Amino acid sequence: MTTTDEQQTTLVTVAPTAAAPPRDSSKRQPTPAARAKKILITAILLVAAVYFLLPIYWVIIASTKSTPDLFGSNGFLFANPQLWTNIADTLAYNNGIFVRWLGNSLLYSGVGAVGATLFAAMGGYAVAKYKFKGKELVFGTVLAGVLIPATATAIPLYLLFSWAGLGNTYWSVLVPTLVSPFGFYLSRIYAETAVPDSLLEAARLDGAGEIKIFFTIGLRLMTPALVTVFLFQVVGVWNNYLLPLVMLADERLYPLTLGMTTWQAGQDRDAGLFALTVTGSLLSIIPLMIAMVIMQRFWRGGLTEGATK
């Protein structure tokens, strides 16, 4: 029997490629209404930027002038610039009291912001992740502190610290700044969504204690919220005027906000303090600008991490 190899040819029919539909040119080019809307939004943002930057521009220009030029020249134009002379005079005035006030402001805002952020993180994490009786009552009580104005607590705080023998000391300003009801609220809300319970349970099964879990897992996952709390607290303490005014009597303990007010009060007796006050105002905003630039990368990282979860 003869065997023959039969070859089967498979016919493959290739469907013709459908022609791409013609592109609508109207989708690539914005309509007149869209262009008008974009121009309007840009104009509004530009006006807002000028509104916020104009005072800073004026301070920069004014800090380069002498006292006569402050009142005898255009406020938005340079006139005989002497910035470095003004800075040197500001730092050297009254045996360098400005440097002392600057150090006090850094101490109050730095220690106060770090402590308030840590306590807010601990409290918010505990309320968000642990179950105990009265949890909502504790949360509501602390949150009620946001509704109490600072002027209502100034006198009671003064009487309390005077009774404890801490009046007119660094502690009388530092201790009240360690409390941040807003930070506590933000930390609780963020911990509920950003810190998964399954991750905490896995850490407990591995033998980690609650304190170690909080500092190694909780704090890292809550970093974007804690950066927000920290910056809010830094700005709030740095610009705080009422609390140091009530608590402090020794000018060596003054922060910049309170110390430079004494210069404003003495301008009638010493006209040279006008230029020093303006130059001091410029120097006082530099630390806040540096803090914003340094900390903004944590915001970016936190927003990107949250978007990819």
Characteristic terms for this protein:
globular; about 300 residues; disordered C terminus; disordered N terminus; mainly alpha; 2 domains; MetI-like fold
Which percent bin holds the helix content? over 70%
By secondary-structure content and strand pairing, the structural class works out as mainly alpha
Mean pLDDT: 83
- Write down the domain tally: 2
Q: In oligomeric terms, what are we looking at?
A: single chain
What's the shape? globular
Gyration radius from CA atoms, angstroms = 31 Å
CATH architecture of the largest domain: Orthogonal Bundle
Euclidean distance between termini CA atoms: 71 Å
- State the fourth-level CATH superfamily of the largest domain: MetI-like
> SSE string, helix = H, strand = E?
HHHHHHHHHHHHHH
Main sheet properties: none
Could you name the CATH topology of the largest domain? MetI-like fold
Number of helices: 14
Low-confidence stretches: 1-18, 303-309
> In percent, how much strand structure appears in the residues?
under 5%
Record field, number of beta strands: 0
Question: Any idea of the CATH class of the largest domain?
Answer: Mainly Alpha
